[in-house]
Amino acid sequence: MPDVRLASPQGKWILLTTVLGSSMAMLDSTVVNVALPRIGRDLDASLAALQWTVNAYMVTLAGLILLGGSLGDRYGRRKVFVVGVIWFAAASLLCGLAPNAGVLIAARALQGVGGALLTPGSLALIQASFHPDDRGRAVGLWSGFGGVGAAVGPFLGGWLVDGPGWRWVFLLNVPLALVCAPIAVRHVPESADDTRHGRFDVLGATLGALSLALVTYALIEAREGSLVVAVTAVAGLVAAVAFVHVERHTPDPMMPLDIFASRQFTAVNLVTLGVYAAFGGFFFLAALQLQVAVGWSALAAGTALLPTTVLMLLFSARSGEIGERIGPRIPLTVGPLLCAAGMLLMLRVGPGASYVSDVLPALLILGLGMVILVAPLTATVLGSVDTSRAGLASGINNAAARAAGLIAVAALPLLAGMGPEAYRSPSAFDEAFGRAMVLCAVLLVAASVLAFATVRRLPPDCRRPECRTFGSISAPPLEGERPRGRIG
After folding, report:
1. What's the distance, CA 486 to chain centroid?
2. Which residues cross the membrane (predicted)?
């Protein structure tokens, strides 16, 4: 049984290193959007290259995050976490030194691999290290500090872009890793799950990531209408079918398909796809809109987006408590509708927009909707399956949210009619941004209707979320497996 107490010096070191590790990945998921216009100008990149700057990271992260958690359980959670931190830092250094858009995109894909190793490992280390009496408080502090990091991200990104330059958005991860990895090696006990046997589902993970990459490429390049795009789209669908086939027949699947026998689990993941597709598209385009069309600096744009994260950080725990009392159906119905209203209010944000009268009301309503929605969504995912599979269910839901975000970043500019050079023209971008916000609102309304029709009250004995405070806007909280196996 893990026996580290939170008040001990070792407990504080464990909390510090896990917060630093998770913050590296969480910061990059929010900071990069603010830097995109400057990256585009400095590297003479097209809109498609900017989309890939975001999506190359998301493809490998979403495709490999379930495998990353399994590797930690088998070979040692500390070992895999440290490898993830070092990998992420090395890829970040390559991002910061990238001479052109192609190298940057490749380095971002490598970053995603590191993120897939350290993101699940961060929470797993806390759950496997702390005494059961302290585990809940340790997870609360970890998720709270992580939320603070997410809130600081857009502001920090804007300051770096306007000051030292966008390359420091990535280079900042190197000193964080130099602090994080040695602390983990020295102070975090190793742990593993001795009950885990069988082969890793490397083929399933590869097919999943390949399918996402091919479909994303086809959507981003669809404006060309070439034979290559058509072939890539078909290949992406074939890879998706092959992924399902492998998961159905392999002895140890990364994503056991029988978990979708729960109708509520299936329904809430469809709700997740709609909601996080809208969120991913919104935060990608909003950071561009505020700089390209409104004319604000990167710092002003990053600071402007803070209210949504701050509201989630302050009130997500309270929202979870209310959801437990009234059930998830009302929050999962009302939350997306409020988010849709916030995105429609963004139609007022264009050249000459005022922050107080135009931007802030939209972000406050959007943030309120996210507060109402995110915690009950996580609780519904965990409560829809057997308690023993809650960690797996959370991982699938987290991966689904990230996949939805990357597909939205690929598809929304195409559906909204953004050309390859749209971000260089304030008027063209503003017009397309309005169409994109309407599409995001439609996705959210559809998710609300689906939730109202399918979500039911959870059984009283289901597992409840441990991450009560949360501030990330890229994916719902990742809940780990209950710790099993050796601690050494």
Report:
1. 30
2. 12-36, 48-68, 80-99, 105-126, 138-160, 166-188, 200-220, 226-246, 267-288, 294-317, 329-347, 359-383, 395-416, 436-455
